[in-house]
Amino acid sequence: MTGFDRLRILIVENEGLVGCDMAAFLSDLGYRVVGTCTSSDDAIRLFDDLRPDLVLMDVHIEGSTDGIETARLLQQRGPVAIVYVTACADLETVNRARETHPQGYLLKPFSNDELRLTVEVAAARVQDEIERRRREQSYFETFESLADGVIVADLAGLIVFSNPAAAQVTGWPQAESVGRSLHEVFRIYHPSGEPAMVELATPSQPSQERTVWLTTRKGQRVALNDRSNPLRDQSGQLTGIVILFRAQPTQANITASAATHERGASTQAPLVDVVESISDPLIAIDGSWRITYANASAQQLFGRGTDRLLGADLWDLLPAATREEHYSSLGHAMLHREAVSRELYLEEKQTWIELRGYPFAEGLLILLQDITSKREEAERRSRLDRLESLGLLARGFAHEFNNLLTVLLGNLSLAEMRLRTVIQLPEIHTAKQATLQAQSLVQQLLTFARGGAPIKRPTQAGELIEQFFQHHSRAPRIEYRLEIVPSLPTLAIDPAQIRRLLGNLVRNAEQAQPNGGVITVRCHPHDPGENYPHELTADQPMLPTGILIEVQDRGEGISTENLAHIFEPYFSTRKVENATGLGLTVCESIAKAHGGSISVRSEPGVGTSVSLYLPVDADGEEVDALGLSRAFETPPQTTSTRILVLEDDPLVRALIVRNLTSQDFEVTETVEGTETIRAYQEARQNNRPFDLVILDLSIPNGMGGVRAMEKLRQIDPEVLAIVSSGYSDDPVMAKPASYGFAAVLPKPYEPADMIRLIKTVLSQRTVGR
After folding, report:
1. How far apart are the C-alpha atoms of 97 and 94, rounded to whole Å?
2. Which residue among 245, 270, 561, 668 is least packed, with the fewest CB closer than 10 Å?
3. Which residues of 381-391 are buried (b: 16+ CB within 10 A; e: fewer)?
4. Cα 106-110-114 angle, rounded to 5 deg
5. DSSP 269
6. pLDDT tens per residue across span 531-581
7. Other C-beta atoms within 10 Å of 74: how many?
8. Residue partners of 248: CB distance under 8 A and separation at least 6
9. 128 vs 4, 81, 123, 185, CA distance in Å?
């Protein structure tokens, strides 16, 4: 954790178990978590005591103020970076949070990888800011204490810093010199009386001391030894100059009239005349847009020598469209003596240039920098931001939409069961199939946006592939070939995610053959000898470590140049077809989430082969086909079958109650976690405990399933519970036993699936007894 080990992190999280998990995970990564709390008052107290550098802040927290207002209070108390970790995705909350300038906004539920990446980015920014403040403070403390005079000026020649020694020599107090022109405060001349220029050091010509004469504010002449160096930022970009000087003790305070030299001052060369060493193009123009100076880099940029460049009109060197777009801005800056910054595109060179202009004499001093790579990086980041925004939208959309799909699917299933003995209605079956397809689309949106932790179940890969093609809408003039080796090992995978991955690969293969062709899908054991041919010495055959699924086409292939970018978000060679460029990005995310990998081989004109490797013993907790956690041990059975339900959506809750009561279960319904805890505790006190609790994972503006389960386990360590959610990619749904749950029930589901899961959980409890 080099560089981050000094970073102090405070976690303010409404759900204590989640906060503890975050702290443990970040500590394992090497971060220093100095404290956790659940309320605004504790957050302020811990901030004052511990002075953290980074705060992970929930929005809905205990106390008189919410997380956003608490973040404002912390920022008023001292420098601190904020990362919001919340389930709130509404526009009003996001806009309020944006006003506090957070370093990140992580939406619940989230995976460990998402938490790690968010904190890594925030930590890097915090570390850079700490280093910048430390460096600036060190510089200024050093400059302040120097016996030599120090003056710092920006590119426009305006003074931004002056130390006490400089004030004493020049006669200009610090408060008055800052903001003034360098040539007004630091007027220097050669011994011959000619105006002297500031000489910058270069890599090939280090700074050397020289003797010049300074005219002070009172008109006195003082002999100085001075030297100057360019001032650059962390990216190496020139931002100004630093001048160090001291008065010669043998030439102190020689009085003379400054007027003698004022005539020479008017002919003093511009500052740019001494910065030939600057790597970026630098030019000076007069009030008629004529170029009066151009350094070597500017001559190279415009492809002209000084004989053809000096005196040329700036706009004659730039495309006509550039003048139309930027003339008024540069003219306004020149007229009002203001700095200006513009971005120009040189179409002939396919290059983006940043133009920064500063008032100088009657015209402008213009620094040009190639920012093509920065523009490309900014565009890439913009695409990632759009992907993150899609994730925020998808999370809220999926939860609400899956609730509606649960109601639709449940009522259709109940109607089908009631009418089964009376009449067969194919319309109901068709409606159910459409609902299941809608569920698949929602999961596809979630996967495109964020990937998601897989809910692993024992699965036969060969059967999954065959079932996929039974329902796949086949493209015209495409021949599909399946080559599946029999008796493949059972894998612990998320069938829905692997089907989506396979769908993306098959769709790509179809689009690569618009005029028809052949798609071959192979599924066979992975042979370690292919990767490690010299490391396998055993004579007897080894058990397969995993399987390979290959999708091969005979299409146009992928060029070597494009092959290096195919897994990048939004990269696509089919722009005219409105391709999103997210398909292979999602495939890679799913493969890695299963502990596997994906690789691509392609030859232009021959075709493409994509190989997916899935290990037999993939990491992660496994649930069986009914969603039961295999890590869960059940408590002893009680005398009655009573079920406590937590569900905030009234339609879903009514469906659950109707479904359970039809099976003679005694049901108590609640809409918020605290109500659930109270009902469970009262039932135990009345000696009528609940046999099972069904908890919705997310309760907006209230206590959700994780926090409620934490409280229930404090009351009854042997509580038996099922977690249900429309957030099917949540870590809780992937690892239910880690949070105390016996099983998971992803929304939407059919009533029969719920009854089957409940009876299985209850029967397993009996077997456990």
Report:
1. 5
2. 561
3. eebeeebbebb
4. 70
5. P
6. 444 433 334 444 557 899 999 999 988 887 778 777 776 566 665 454 555
7. 24
8. 211, 223, 224, 225
9. 10, 12, 8, 34
